Every structure is written in C-alpha cells, then in structure tokens.
Amino acid sequence: MFNIAECTSVIKHKLYNKGIPIITIEPTVVKKLGCGKGNAKKRQMVDAFKQELGDPYPWFDLVDDGSEKIPSPISDCVDAYFVLKSGLLQENNNENKVS
Description:
Blueprint: H1 2-17, H2 27-35, H3 42-53, H4 74-98
Helix pairs in contact: 2-4, 3-4
C-alpha cells in the first residue's frame, strides 16, 4: 500500500511541475457513470463495460457470468476505462464552462 502511495505522489509531483492538471475522481462518481449508481459492485461494472464496448478481450470470458468475484486484471481494466471516461467528461465540462 505504501509503495502505491509513494509512486502516486511522485507521479503527481512530476505532472504538477510540468503544468499538467491533476483531476481527482471519487469512486462513487466512476461507478455512477458506469452503472448509474454510486454503490455498484464489480460485477455490475464489468457488465456495464461489456454492454458499452462489447467483449473486447478473450480473457473476459474467464469471468463466469454468474459470479460476483471479478479477478484482476479484469476489474482493474474496467475501473481504468471508467476513470478515464469520467476524467475526460469532467475535463470537457470544465472547458465548456470557461468558453
């Protein structure tokens, strides 16, 4: 856990020094974008991902459609997709407010 926090701090520091804005997005916001509710489970996030993009990776078939347990890296990839989408939407909203 500490290694992740340390690496995140270094990355944020380097981005800040280069003038790249850092956007913090709460997990509930990401889940709401993916599933429509902020307390969505991993299974619901994977289903939303598949509904939005299809099943782009053969290893998604490793997830049993009835199982609530979603292994990594599948859940990590799904989270990363919706975090990116959330960040892009937030950035676009901020640009529209400025202009």
